[in-house]
Amino acid sequence: xxxxxxDPPFYRFFHYYNRYFPLGxxxxxxxxxxxxxxxxxxxxxxxxxSKGMDYTRLPEKYRIYLRELQNPxxxxxxxxxxxxAKYQPVLVGITVxxxxxxxAFTVAALAKSYNxxxxxVFGGPHATLKSDEILxxxxxxxxxxxxxxxxxxxxxxxxxxxxxSGHSQIPKVNFNRINGLSYRQGDTIVHNTTxxxxxxxxxLPFPAxxxxxxxxxxxxxxxxxxxxxxxxxxxxSYCATQIWMRRVRYRSLENIIEEIRYVQQRYRTRQFTFxxxxxxxxxxxxxxxxxxxxxxxxxxxxxxxTRVDLVDSELLKTMKQAGCNSIKVGIESGSExxxxxxxxxxxxxxxxxxxxxxRKAGIHWTAYFMMGIPTETREDIQKTVDLLHEIxxxxxxxxxxxxxxxxxxxxxxxxxxLVKQEMSYEDFFSYIPSDYYLKDVNRRVDTMSHDDFxxxxxxxxxxxxxxxxxxxxxxxxAKARSSVYFHNPGILLGxxxxxxxxx
Length: 503
What we know:
2 domains; 15% strand; 15 strands; Rossmann fold; seven-stranded mixed beta sheet; 19 helices; alpha/beta
């Protein structure tokens, strides 16, 4: 079966830098390919020469996205139709994150315009949490896969292939046997039994990077995206952890090392990025990984995500020796009260201690903050700005809280009259993504007027932008990436261009 897997365009509409290849689609593609299907990955959000990097100011660009998405003369929209005509898929898989929903709907419509008999399936975080809403709103979507998609999508592709080939012994495919699948049956929406997670992640083939369209638009660093585990044991109220049931599954370290060697040899990748939710949640495993890398003589750099309460001096020292040159952590707020509301399980004390440990280890670190949480006051927001200047991360980013379905903060927003449970098809094309699910776009928080919040938001984002432009912080980031620049000067040139566009 001829299958096209798509990451719909979003950042590309307003020329923002979007890193890496779509890892999830890579895993789906390799699984389908192994079973004999013809698969192409179309990363429609990959763009060359993009300049925007200041993600604190991202919502300012959202109106461009909505306008151009609905412009039939837009070159990106035209390109999508041309891709359908060129590759002639009979099954189209689209990954959907909440901000990209309108784009995903548009891609689905273009697929049906190309061929009304082409089957369209949605997957990804938003599809998992809002399958009912998607199937009710968008008639161009035939199926939704919830949770991990490799096995469910393969079963669906095999069933549809049998039907098209005339090999099926029954005139109509029995989709209710495919766990993890949702679909329409007449006027009824059917949700099949939830599919079990993949227990042995080593059974999954490596992501099919070689099946990406437009390989010349990616750098060697973009090819270095890895995932050593799936799942998260924590229950932060802003994160849809229900998808993973607070359970972590790991690939074997040998399997990870094998993929690193493969990517290093094929794409000359020096800088790798681990996408694990909390890379150091298993301290012993991370120490073993670092020693395996060093004992094998693998000279790479890598970065990861973790939490402030999952690091210590010995661990960070060992990680740096093994090539770790950057760590990203969620700080979220400078208010102890807001931290408790987020159910993150960290304190201001653990944040301050981790900041000292990162500086002592000499590892560049990025801190992520949030504002606009339900019940948050001006004083709470000011505490966040004060904390930024106290802990002095190498880079800092702040975003306004967006109510994502499946989170406890979403439910709190509903209880406080700030958030609505459902969106219509038209809503996704009428409101900018940062306003999705808000009951009233002029009432994001319930502790101050909309005008006051917008004023504070602009002040805070300007404070973060000014902080990041400090010469010391720019030098610190460049120093952390010096080894990467030495081995691939092209990445240095690309970083300089992006930085100049950012400032």
